Amino acid sequence: MAERLWKVLGAKRQSLVSGTKYRYPARAWTRHLDPSKMVLCERGYHYCEGPQVLEWLREGLLCEVERCAEHKPLRGDTKAVSCRLRIVRTFVLDARVLRLFACDCAERALRRERKAGREPDAASWECVRIARLYAVGKATKEELDAAYYAAYDAYAAHATYATAAAVSAAYATAADAAVSAAYAAGANAKERRWQYGRLLELVGADTKGDNDA
């Protein structure tokens, strides 16, 4: 089965990383670009294939897109570029979703450590717990910061990928927390596939139900 294709955009469907502030049309094709002029990372309409989207998480919209089928895209390790794209459906990617995603990734890593007989320190567990409460408005920024520093001290004393993921879950911005916790929790293909599936569950995109673009 072909990978679903994604692009993360701002709340008004504007580009977040190109600096152009280009606003993608709703449910319509972008202007066609001459395929010979496409340059990966520089020119063209960029998108992600499946789990690649984990590298580009930001607050805004997670947009499922369709690429031009007439011309071959250019592909890189973390993204691809096409001569045109069309938004098929959109899902909200807000601070709550991103923080909860970070916590899920970190907690999964901590549980793997426990299963392997290496019990993580209490500060790492507590950091994830507080970060999860913060995501739903039940902990303060001061509590989040305190949990972060306690977990960081534990990480400095005994660094593991799991403790790094726990610290990351309490990063100041939810987007940084999501990207960093996911990477620290496991960059192998199997784990990234789980993370990708979990992200889609959290935004309600695990099925192909349609949302307004």
Overview of the molecule:
This protein has 213 residues and is an alpha+beta fold. The chain has two domains: 5-93, no CATH class; 96-202, no CATH class. It contains six helices and six strands, in the order E-E-E-E-E-E-H-H-H-H-H-H. A six-stranded antiparallel β-sheet has the order 4-5-2-1-3-6. The longest helix is centred in the middle third of the chain and has 21 residues, at 95-115.
Could you provide a short overview of the structure?
About 40% of the residues lie in helices and about 15% in strands. It has helices at about 95-115, 120-135, 140-155, 160-170, 175-185, 190-205, and strands spanning about 5-10, 45-50, 60-65, 75, 80, 85-95. It has a 6-stranded antiparallel sheet with strand order 4-5-2-1-3-6.
